[in-house]
Amino acid sequence: MSEWLLKPVSFRFQLGDWVLGNVSLPMQVLAVDPFDYSEPVETPGLPGIELLKGSNGYAIRNLPVEKKQPTIRAVGGFLCYVPLQYQHCYIDLGWSFQKYAEKFSSKTRSTINRKVRKFREKSGGTISWKSYDRPEDLDEFFRHARKVSVLTYQERLLDVGLPSTEAFQLEAKALAASDRLRAFILFDGDRPVSYLYCPEREGALVYAYLGYDPEYGSLSVGTVLQWLAIEKIFEERKFRYFDFTEGNSSHKLLFASHQRLCANVFFLRRTARNWFLLRSHCLTNDVSSWLGAKLDKYGLKLWAKRLLRRG
Fold it and tell me: Among 262, 247, 263, 273, which Cα is nearest to 25's?
């Protein structure tokens, strides 16, 4: 069961894929179990727990809500800030793979099959990919996955690629030793072109890291690997859910079998400093959304992302 923890919470200032800065505050944090099917709340209220010394307030992640919430409002001596509202996407692995495949429209199934077929033809008629779930195999996984990760714009610009630290790799091996990790690599011949890294958390496989070689973007290798991996995960009948975690993306919406409206809710002490922080963060998010919409309207969004990926 989740519990409140006092730890740093980061507010990242970002315009599209450009990170402008980051402010970190100690707060009491509660991560709601995404598969706790209690009723969603109509309006988030202040937690009924004591504010600890050194804490700037409360942070509640993955809170199911009935409807879209106002971004900033005053609640007593606190400012309630809701910067992220999203459809929490996941796959119910209690289904059969056949039932899961049938949730797609015939057009979508045809599109996915066409992408798989196109990559198979590019690879000489056979798709080469590998699953890693044992500690002794993870050195090979990280060797291949890191070759891909260093090419991605997520790592080069945002520093959010697959971690390369020894501590992270030791943690991965410990998870694998407890049969709590699934990782995958897609190859073109001997060349790794996409990776997927999924640790287990409370019975759910978590969509933690997915990356692909930008040279293979037109072949949708991330989609191809995701489809192959999901089929294998269904066949295992070991995990209850595949959790795409927080945030919105077309990839998550495509593959999810279920969605639920959730929000990240912050209650910060009502001070001038915190008011300025939240208004600035909100303004940056609004400008970022406006910029993204304008680029999309004039057909420049994809061009901008490709430019970033090329560095």
Answer: 273
CATH number at residue 102: 3.40.630.30
For residue 55, the enclosing domain spans 5-88+260-310
Residue 86 per-residue DSSP state: E
Backbone angles phi, psi at 136, to 5 degrees: -70, -15
Rounded to 10 deg, the angle between the 106-122 and 221-236 helix axes is 110
In a domain, 120, yes or no: yes
Amino acid at site 179: D
Instruction: Answer positive or negative: Cα dihedral of 29, 153, 22, 84.
Output: negative
d(CA 223, CA 235): 19
Indicate whether 156 and 98 sit together in one domain: yes
Residue 159, pLDDT > 60, answer no
Which residues lie closer than 8 Å to 106 by C-beta, 6 or more apart?
Answer: none
* Residue type for position 263: A
Domain assignment present for 181: yes
pLDDT digits (tens, 9 = 90+) for 41-88: 999 999 999 999 999 999 999 999 999 999 999 998 999 999 999 999
Residue 295: is it exposed, middle or buried by C-beta count within 10 angstroms (0-12/13-18/19+)?
Answer: middle
Higher pLDDT, 129 or 163: 129
* Model confidence pLDDT, tens digit, residues 5-38: 999 999 988 876 677 889 999 999 998 887 877 7
pLDDT (average), residues 292-305: 52
Sign of CA dihedral 287, 307, 118, 190: negative
DSSP string, 18-69: EEEEEEEEEEEEEE--TT--PPPBSS----SSPPPTT--EEEEEEEEBSSPP
Predicted local distance difference test score (pLDDT) of residue 206? 96
The structural domain count of the chain equals: 2
**Could you tell me if 105 and 229 lie in one domain?**
yes
Same domain for 115 and 229: yes
210, 239, 268 - which closes a domain? 239
Q: Note whether 255 and 54 are within 8 A (CB).
A: no
